[in-house]
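pinned: reference chain
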Amino acid sequence: MIKAIINAQIVLDDSTRKGTILIENERIIAVGTVIPPEHAEIIDARDYFAGPGFVDIHCHGGGDASSHLSPAKAAEHHLASGTTSLLLSLGYSLSKEERHEGMQFIREASSGPPKNLFGIHFE
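pinned: its structure tokens
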């Protein structure tokens, strides 16, 4: 299934331009002044900006969730604000046992939704 994000202010290297983004199998296949296929699912961006996702390489949690106790909940919080890649941090003040437990929780959470966990940042 192809998705078409129409009427988007597309963030480019040096400017923004109104256009369409075509997505197939979770991959961008076309950007710009493209016409969506007839069978595409249409998403109207209504002039909102569409650009690359944010990458956070040092994050101790999100919302009311800490990275070492509730990694999936923390990741979900960040994904809702556009952070598409996240390394959850294990703070230096954690005990050895807390670090090991946190690593296991993050490892388990990285295989399921929300799919934006890509590793661990150690202090």
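why pinned: The mean pLDDT is 94. The longest strand covers residues 2-11.
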